[in-house]
Amino acid sequence: MIYSEKVMDHFANPRNVGEIENADGIGEVGNAKCGDIMKMYIKVDNGIITDVKFKTFGCGAAIATSSIATEMIMGKSIEEALKLTNKAVVEALDGLPPAKLHCSVLAEEAMKAAISDYYKRQGIDPAPFVGEITPHCDGETCGCDVNH
Ligand code: FES
């Protein structure tokens, strides 16, 4: 299996690992395919994500995708962050082997779960903004050709 240099870099030196005390939103999702778990914390100020951290019991591809995803949403508005797809994350990493594409879904879902939690804490129904959070890769959202 060949990983790009960017994947190897984010796996070896993951950015924004940890927890945020007094986070404004926390999302935890599991990957039904492999049982791995991802937790994401966000700090939001005036609709802008001012800090984001993640923790995972996941594989290297999950670590690399989460690491780059946190960099891509840091400083962005919630609306912009919600537009981030796992496809864009995978592209930013210069690709992932097809068998590891399902791992990239964890990052997107954990981020959406954290934003949902943020909305709920504000007393706002997140559904119209975030939509359904699929608990695992459905084989469509990730564009993965693996049979789940
Ligand atoms: Fe589980 Fe990659 S094998 S997230």
Descriptive overview:
- The chain is an alpha+beta fold and 148 residues long.
- It has a single domain, classed as Alpha-Beta Complex (Sufe protein. Chain: A), CATH 3.90.1010.10.
- 40% of the residues lie in helices and 17% in strands.
- The chain has 6 helices and 3 strands.
- The protein has helices at 5-12, 60-73, 78-82, 86-92, 101-121, 127-130, and strands at 25-30, 37-45, 48-57.
- The protein has a 3-stranded antiparallel sheet.
- A hairpin with a 2-residue loop joins strand 2 and strand 3.
- Helix 1 (5-12) packs across helix 2 (60-73) and helix 2 (60-73) crosses helix 4.
- It is globular.
- The structure holds FE2/S2 (inorganic) cluster.
Concise synopsis of the structure shown:
This protein is an alpha+beta fold. 40% of the residues lie in helices and 17% in strands. It has a single domain (5-122), classed as Sufe protein. Chain: A.
